[in-house]
Amino acid sequence: TGTENVDSRHNRFHTVNVAQPVRFSRKCPTGWHHYEVTASCYRVYLNGENYWDAVQTCQRVNGSLATFTADQELRFILAQEWDLEENTFVRSDQRGFWVGYQYVITNRNHSLEGHWEVAYKGSSEVFLPPDPIFGTAMSEKENVLCAQLQYFHFPSLRHHGVHSWYAENCYEKSSFLCKRSQTCVDIKDNIVDEGYYFTPKGNDPCLSCTCHNGEPEMCVAALCERPQGCQQYRKDPKECCKFTCLDP
């Protein structure tokens, strides 16, 4: 689209390019899933690690093992296609990963008694899981077990939120789910620090914005003239005012 200005003396039309409405398609690095309600990014790591190693891996990417604030967030997680490897699970129709809760055992007399805790204190609004299913690889010496969220691979069951909470031996190896705050990601998939200028992912490589709380703000657009002496051309999707001439 454009605006057309009339030069009345010569009755000529000049078309001026106008910036399109901005649509930012990414607020998470590649491989992460964005959830608008919590302004968070989620990623499942398939390299099986014990619980403690999984905690450190999440911390290295500025996140933590995932905890959940509401059923809607958990349903979002269950609905995603995580491409988990089948050989890491006991049953071929189930999938699972470490998440950020631990089950503290308080009594072993007749039956296991205990309670869930958030493994690493974060948001005060997180909910705690219901009573767990106890895994088969438990140790009689361990008084702390770690949470594994398991769900069925079948899409119909996943989209209905069918899942189970397991309390497993923390030294078992498993996939795991990391969660981090949404972030600014530039057009070349680099993470941008707070307060810096960047060109956000989207459909306009000529935007320059400031990163604020994971959102692009105060954006300024550059407008480009069409290339001279070229009738058919293609804009570079990642470089401002760069064209490829398609004329024979």
TrEMBL record:
TM regions (residue ranges): none
Q: Where is the C-type lectin domain?
A: 37-179
Q: Which Gene3D superfamilies match?
A: Mannose-Binding Protein A, subunit A
Please list the coiled coil stretches: none
Record GO cellular component, one term: membrane
The record's section on InterPro entries has: C-type_lectin-like, C-type_lectin-like/link_sf, CTDL_fold, IDD, VWF_dom
The record's annotation in PANTHER family points to:
INTEGRAL MEMBRANE PROTEIN DGCR2/IDD (PTHR15256), INTEGRAL MEMBRANE PROTEIN DGCR2_IDD (PTHR15256:SF6)
| Designated name of the protein | IDD protein
